[in-house]
Amino acid sequence: MAAPTFYNEMLDADGGTRPHYAAYRRWLDETPPERIAAKRAEADALFHRVGITFAVYGQEDGAERLIPFDVIPRIIPAHEWRQLSAGLRQRVRALNAFIGDIYHGQEILKAGVVPETQVLCNVQYRPEMQGIDVPGGIYAHIAGIDVVRAGAGEFYVLEDNLRVPSGVSYMLEDRRMMMRLFPELFARYKVAPVEHYPDLLLDTLRSVAPQGVADPTVVVMTPGAFNSAYFEHAFLAQQMGVELVEGKDLFVEDEQVFMRTTQGPQRVDVIYRRIDDDFLDPLAFRPQSMLGVPGLLSAYRAGRVTLSNAIGSGVADDKSIYPFVPEMIRFYLGEAPILNNVPTWQCRKKDELAHVLAHLPELVVKEVHGAGGYGMLVGPAASAAEIEAFRAQLVATPERYIAQPTLALSSCPTFVDSGVAPRHIDLRPFVLSGREIRFVPGGLTRVALKEGSLVVNSSQGGGTKDTWVLEE
């Protein structure tokens, strides 16, 4: 392999192997490419058989896709994971404090740390949540924090996902697949386990049940089988041993939520909802929604049911709020941020918009409410026509966008059709907040399979890798 031009997770600047990859590199050099190719084909067949697919919205054929799985793991040494862990805990603590504050005293707005209009005029801000106390003061029980490594190897937080973060089922299935395909590797390496995530998730959800409920009933609420992440909804319900429900399976009576069962109504105490705020309760939000439960907000306001994540949490993961997270950490925790943000220009500001317009071919521009890799411009990969079309959008509605430098995302050896080659990656650890903050070591590593691509989203042709955190 040639020496890397980006930070390479396996190779140093001189082309030598980093110590934490040494045993794996020896195994890789000794293994015929034909065997790896056969194992990749076996993985694809097994994933198809299990039904690990996702739908791409907007595709005319409506076909479900298999997320490509790469058989070369991303390996993180113990000391790096310690640093990441501390930064993730700190960030999620601050984000939960921020959400609690904006729905109560709004001290951070009064102090001028975050502009009032950025919050109160945000489409993700829910006035209905004002003054509502939630168990333990926890709003974002499940957070997916997207982390990238760039430059000389420093970690940055790319974005925070606090509404309905997805992908943890792929993290778990990728590990199962690697252990099935390459059991000998797990004898060589002390890889920290991840398979206990469903147990941690269930324990977290039970820990935030309404006050006075000793043995809470937990359910996973899905929009239904046509949702792009339905496999994950069903998978997590099965792994936790709880019911998978749709809105039509639930009803509210006397400000309590009940589930219809063959034995009659059963009270529900905690709902891990995988449905956006707008669709949760047709009496409170979108009247035409057929996915939600009429009266759910009233039961929630009365403290008779817990929703994970809380209604209104999305205001803290909006990309227009992202630039203020380091200041949230200082404001609420009195600490310096452990993990840095990516430098960000807010296009709603006249001078920052001017900079973005002048450097558009060099930047990544994102919609503040966008997700999944949609609604963004990757300047260096865009055509002149695409750049000019985006320029017109920016001039017309600058408040809808932020911009960031095009990061030199780290690369990881990946098995592609031409053999082993570097491809760019990110990492989404899943942080659980209940009585305490917990997570399994690692997360979902997403990989941009197209040569040179920096977009790792599955909806944009990305794949996944198993993430190995080495134990001491």
TrEMBL record:
<protein>
    <submittedName>
        <fullName>Circularly permuted type 2 ATP-grasp protein</fullName>
    </submittedName>
</protein>
<dbReference type="InterPro" id="IPR051680">
    <property type="entry name" value="ATP-dep_Glu-Cys_Ligase-2"/>
</dbReference>
<dbReference type="InterPro" id="IPR016450">
    <property type="entry name" value="UCP005522"/>
</dbReference>
<dbReference type="Pfam" id="PF14403">
    <property type="entry name" value="CP_ATPgrasp_2"/>
</dbReference>
<feature type="domain" description="Circularly permuted ATP-grasp type 2">
    <location>
        <begin position="73"/>
        <end position="448"/>
    </location>
</feature>
<dbReference type="InterPro" id="IPR025841">
    <property type="entry name" value="CP_ATPgrasp_2"/>
</dbReference>
